Amino acid sequence: MKILYISISGNTRAFVQHLKTYSDEQHQQNNENPLITSKEISENSPFEKEDDSFFAFVPTYLEGGNGVDSGDTEILTDVLRDYLDYEDNYKKCLGVVGSGNKNFNYQYCLTAKQYSEAFGFPFLADYELRGTSADCERIYHILKEHESN
């Protein structure tokens, strides 16, 4: 199982690391696949054509508007959008997981929802900030289910 992600404040990176640890534990305890590999996309990442399927993880950083009736502008994470668009990488994406801060109401996980709509892959799950152990377990099982479909 492969995850592509972008992490601005370190929250997404920390969550993906916790998810990988949980996956490793499940593999050791139950000889259960899949093990997780991850790739962080940043401003310095070389763009490559993805040959294998993957999941995308994206936090929400917006400016301008409220995301409902006065628009919004994605900031800081748009390099992941560009990477997904590059060589049609989005066609290999099995779904997106979003994160954010619930204090932002409607804008919570809005970037992931917009990716889902723009690229046509499903919005699978969400978690707040760095997530919890329960979030890791829940999202791991969601990814497992969608990888096997």
Radius of gyration: 15 Å
Assess the beta-strand content as a share of residues: 15-25%
Looking at the structure, what is the overall shape?
A: globular
Approximately how much helix is present in the residues? 25-40%
| Text of the CATH class | Alpha Beta
Number of domains: 1
Q: Find the CATH topology.
A: Rossmann fold
Distance between the termini: 13 Å
Main sheet characteristics: 5 strands, parallel
CATH homologous superfamily label? Flavodoxin domain
Tally of helical runs: 4
Query: How much is the average pLDDT?
Result: 89
Q: What is the ordering of alpha helices and beta strands?
A: EHEEEEHEHEH
Q: Low-confidence parts lasting 5 or more residues at pLDDT below 50?
A: none
Structure description:
- The chain has 149 residues and is an alpha/beta fold.
- It has 4 helices and 7 strands.
- The protein has helices spanning 11-30, 78-85, 110-119, 133-148, and strands at residues 2-5, 37-40, 54-59, 62-63, 73-74, 93-100, 123-128.
- The strands form 2 sheets. A 5-stranded parallel β-sheet has the order 2-1-3-6-7, sandwiched between helices. Strands 4-5 form a two-stranded antiparallel sheet.
- The longest helix has 20 residues, at 11-30.
- GO terms for molecular function: FMN binding.
- This is NrdI protein.
